[in-house]
Each structure stands twice: as structure tokens, then as C-alpha cells.
Amino acid sequence: MIIGITGGTGFIGKAITDYYLEKGDQIVLFTRKTEPARKNNAIIYVTWDPSSHHVPENVPTLDVIINLAGATLNKRWSPEYKEIILKSRLDAVKTVLELILQQQSCPLLINASAVGYYGTSLERVFTEADEMTPSDFLSEVTVKWEAAIEPCKPLCSRVIPIRFGAVLGPKEGAFPKMMLPYKFFAGGTIGSGKQWLSWIHIQDLVRLIDYVVTHSDIKGPVNGTAPEPVQMNEVGRTIGKAMNRPHLFPVPNFILEALLGEMSVLVLEGQKVLPQKLLDHGFTFDFSTIEKAISNLILLTNS
Q: How far apart are CA 50 and CA 73, in angstroms?
């Protein structure tokens, strides 16, 4: 296959690229950078600027487009940066639409989304069957993000938004930050500890993306989360146990709100999201429990 990836030089994009290179596929990476991140004959680099809505000519015919482009959420959300978060995602989708219009055949489009789509709740359990009305900034962004891909549907074989949970990797993503306080014997409950974390190991996320690619009967939104979400207090206890560190020092809400501003919603609030569609279609997770995932991630971190 020939797979186009936008945002392919980021944490998730690099893992997807490595996976498909190992399978022997051709990768087309769309990037703002003019110099290749690494030299590999199986990677074609295409310089693009999503804010211009312009796509260079002579892009190879793609079997799959994986759109991961968008400004990071891991910065303080000033009013100006909130506009950047939303605009960067909508601009990327518009530019992907231009790319699809150039293509000679109908590619599969996988578009990143997030479990923030569902809003936050301590009590509810969400699956792909749940439709939501935006209730906070993150749900507003993801609802608009998914609405923006609607014009792509008539032009593509399938359009699949994958709603990522917190993606855990050994060196990047949420896990190194979660692990850091425990390294200094200062780990403990964040906020109430009752908030849900819908998470996924990076290796399972990459595998499920490929599963969606290769199973044409999967249609519509897919939750990219492990089958066993956990409350934050349990996450901390599991990290502490795996690292042989105490889980004693609580971090009150007001401290995180002061440090992070509105971005604190990422760790102080959450949602319990199940990957029902994947389970119904027979996908199996290598890391279905937080204990197994954290043990593996710590092993990889120390290797």
C-alpha cells in the first residue's frame, strides 16, 4: 500500500510510520519541514502548509490517508491558543480535502479525533453510539473537527474518525509526565482521583489503525481506547507499585488549575469510553489492562 500521513513526524505519526515501513509499505509524509526527518527510500516527503489549503502537485496516488495534523494540546490554553487548536485542525482537514480531489482513485481517510468528543462525566459510559452536544472546549473542537470531514465522504471509499484516548508510550505522550513525580518519590492522587482515564498503549493504537485499514466492514467513528478505562487514583497506584514508589502526595485541583489553566481539564476531568466497535469486529488488545500496559512501558523506558 501507499499510505499518506499528515502530522507524521509527531509521536503517533512516527509509530505508525515505523509500523508500516516494517510491513513493507510505501509512506508519503506531509510535513512543514523542508529537510527530511530521516532518510529512507520507502519514505517520500511532501512539504505542505495546511493553513494555505494548498497541496503540491504530483503527489502519488494514495491507498490510505491518515490525518493527524493539528496543534498540540500540551500548552496553556490562552484564548489565542484555543483559536489555534481549532483552526489548525480545520485547516488540515480542508487541505486533506484538496489532496483527495487531486487523487485518481478514492482513498480511505482515517482522521484523528479524541474522546473529548463525549464531554466529561463520572457516571456515564460512552460508546460510538453516543451522539453529543458540545459541553466544553474539547468537545466543541472534536465535534467541529469531525463535522469538517463530511465533504470528504462522497470522495473516499471510507471515512473513519478515530477518537483517541490518552496515548501511552515509553518516551513520548502522557506516560513520561505521569511517571515523573514517582521517580522523585512524590507521586499521588491527582484531583479527586475519581475521574476516568480512557487510555491506550501506543502499540495497540497503531495496530487498531491497521485493523481499521484492513477491515472494510468497519465504518463510521471508532473509539481508540483500551477496553478497561480506569480512574486516575488507580493509575497512580499502579505506577507507584510498578516503580516501587509511594503513592502518597495528593495534587489538589486548584494547584493544577493555577499551573495549567483550562488545560487542567485534561487531567482533572475525564470520560469512561469503551472501544465497542472494535470489540464487536473482533479486535484483540495486547494491552487490555492498565497494569499490563504500565509494566511494559516501564520496561521499555528502562531499556
A: 18
Q: State the number of CA atoms in the 13 A half-sphere of 238 facing the CB.
A: 19
Q: What is the pLDDT of residues 1-11, one digit of tens each?
A: 999 999 988 99
The arrangement of strands across the sheet holding 222-224 comes to: 43-47, 26-31, 2-6, 64-67, 108-114, 158-164, 222-224
CB contact set of 173 (below 8 Å; sequence gap of 6+): 11, 166, 167, 202
Strands of 128-286, DSSP E: 158-164, 166-168, 196-197, 199-201, 222-224, 230-231, 272-273
The burial class, CB within 10 Å (0-12 / 13-18 / 19+), for 53 is middle
User: Among candidates 132, 65, 130, which has minimal Cα distance to 103?
Assistant: 65
Q: What percent of the chain has pLDDT over 70?
A: 99
Give the burial class of 192: count Cβ atoms within 10 A of its Cβ; 0-12 exposed, 13-18 middle, 19 or more buried: middle
Distances (CA, A) of 109 to 61, 101, 153: 13, 13, 9
C-alpha cell at 47: 512539504
